[in-house]
Design a protein that fits this description.
By secondary structure, this protein is α+β, with helices and mostly antiparallel strands. It has 11 helices and 5 strands.
Amino acid sequence: MTDDTLPPDARPEQLTRIGQPPRTTSEALRKALWIAPWLIFLGAPVQDLAAGHHTPAATVAGWAGLAAFVATYVTLVFRNMGRPFRGPVVVWLVGALGALAVVLCLTLGGHWIGLFVYVSVTCGATLPVRIAYWAIPVNAAAMLLVGLHSRVHDWSLLLVVVLLGYAMTGVKQLVRTTVELRKARATVAQLAANEERLRLARDLHDLLGHSLSLITLKSELAGRMLPDHPEKAAQQVADIEQVSRQALVDVRAAVSGYRRTRLSDELAGAQVALTAASVVAELPAEPDLTGIPEESETALAWALREAVTNVVRHSGASRCTVEVLRRQTLDGQFLELSVEDNGSGGSGKGPGNGLTGLTERLEKAGGTLEAGRTKHGFRLVARVPAGVPAPVGSGA
């Protein structure tokens, strides 16, 4: 159970954790109460000893043997609830428990035949499943032979021994499954948290990389204009303020998870950024996005932002061409974004964090990314699905 699935009147510290060791004394007592109902089968041995049917020495030995049997049984079952013994220790203790049951029944009479119930429960609860499957029938056969020797004819107890043993193997498997599900839930939560961190890292890189590059360019322009053209410098400072405010809004939206990046907005922003960097920009008019899934448009908008940021910061280009086209392929219709410049493409030897994050973003939207040098510069092509694929033979 997790805290969000608890009953309204329950606190985590009041719940008994299945398959885990007790945290407090009260929880240890609650787990011990699970063992108590099984002690009902000790009624016949206790009555036999209390009735005085045996010699004093035999009675003392019987009480000692019964105490050792109960102590071994309770220790095995209780430890199995949280911190079980190692495999060889469990096997030896279960063997000792079975030997005690045989010795006590043969020496003190048929009233002690119920001890084999505890041996069967211990086999099912503590032994590995493969061993328990044959240990339970062996215990039942031992009980049958001891019962014949002691002239016990209540064979319904034999059925109880077998059924309880195998029932405990099922309970053990259920507890193990519960523990594994708890671990799997924790792993899923950790993976979700890691994925959210990656999303925030990609978004913040794309947002701040673009905005800070633009702020840097306009700050340099304002610095060059300030001595001779204060009015133009003031306009650049006003643009810087606007870009920084928008960046702050975008960062807040990215953190809250409610931002949607639009391709038309990014085209307008690309025009401003390229012009500020003295790059001749050839951009299309507002593209037709009819039927384009929101996820595809957002991924393409991020691709445009990353591509323009790279052109401004790294390429040293003087011209940049942006195209947005629809293409029909065997896999369906795609919306394609192409950004090509005549620069050197930067000095990096491999894809940077931006292109890596962009590739992941496009793959999530079902798209692809191609980026590389051309004869005259650098070209980036991003493709995303333009809608739900039409069924074959529909005439689409």
